[in-house]
Design goal:
By secondary structure, the chain is mainly α. Helix content is about 80%, strand content about 0%.
């Protein structure tokens, strides 16, 4: 069976490949870099490398807004193809949203090649050379803890809980992949977790897109752009059932096979 140092080397390789994709201007570079950092944070947390985990997490968080802008622009283009907004409204929204592109590009450059990334890479390189003891035991324990966190249904929970659950699913999957890299078989819940990540991701993308649209509507009203505000309002009304449907699908995917065990406080207000 492979030893933990080999796992750190995998993290080095994934991070460097993502950074190279960013440098080349690959459209998926931003996404790949965030994923590489999130995977590294999960591994480092499990192996009790708290400082490394914090560094990776902070860098990943610094890229959240640029990544969300990418997703929102993709959804806006899809809305345009469906004919749910007029060309003028599409152009106006795209122009407003793209005002932040320069700031997003600077964040990406800092995250991929700045001082914080340099410090993280040096620390990660040292671990890849030296390794860390008890890796398999700690990863196995962390994976078991992650599985337990996903064992109950999201029935009746609010959006904040769904969001935390979505992040927990990612962490569970990253840890499972770490164990697979060390030679262990894929866990039995892998298929359920893939479905959870997909459905929760779809719901999250739609709800954040809705939030950006609502902000754009408020801005248009403040500026007196009445026609744009009305079009966005109509789009929000059309979008609402899609968000609700994506949410229902995510909740359904969270139900364990057999008896459903609702989380504590399930009777509290539903989102």
């Amino acid at each position: 069976m492979k030893q933990p140092p080999a796992l750190w080397k995998l993290r080095v390789r994934a991070l460097e490949e993502a950074r190279l994709a960013v440098r080349r201007g690959n459209p998926e570079g931003l996404h790949d870099l965030r994923v590489a950092l999130r995977r590294l944070a999960a591994t480092a947390t499990a192996l009790r490398r708290a400082r490394l985990a914090r560094q990776a997490t902070r860098l990943a968080k610094s890229l959240s807004r640029p990544r969300q802008l990418e997703v929102d622009r993709q959804l806006l283009e899809r809305i345009g193809r469906l004919g749910l907004l007029s060309p003028d409204a599409l152009t106006a929204l795209a122009a407003r949203w793209d005002k932040t592109k320069g700031r997003a590009a600077r964040r990406l450059v800092r995250a991929s090649d700045g001082k914080k990334m340099s410090r993280l890479r040096r620390r990660l390189a040292r671990l890849a050379r030296k390794g860390a003891g008890n890796g398999l035991k700690r990863l196995t324990a962390a994976r078991a803890e992650a599985e337990a966190a996903l064992s109950r249904s999201l029935e009746g929970r609010d959006d904040a809980t769904l969001h935390r659950y979505r992040l927990a699913v990612k962490r569970a999957r990253y840890l499972a992949e770490d164990l697979s890299a060390l030679g262990l078989p894929e866990p039995a819940d892998a298929g359920r977790e893939r479905a959870l990540q997909e459905t929760l991701g779809r719901w999250n993308d739609l709800r954040v897109f809705r939030k950006r649209l609502a902000e754009s509507k408020a801005d248009a009203e403040w500026r007196g752009t009445v026609t744009l505000a009305r079009e966005v309002e109509r789009l929000l009304a059309v979008l609402e059932p899609a968000v609700a449907s994506a949410r229902e699908a995510a909740v359904a995917a969270s139900r364990p096979a057999g008896r459903v065990l609702p989380l504590r406080g399930a009777a509290r207000a539903r989102a």
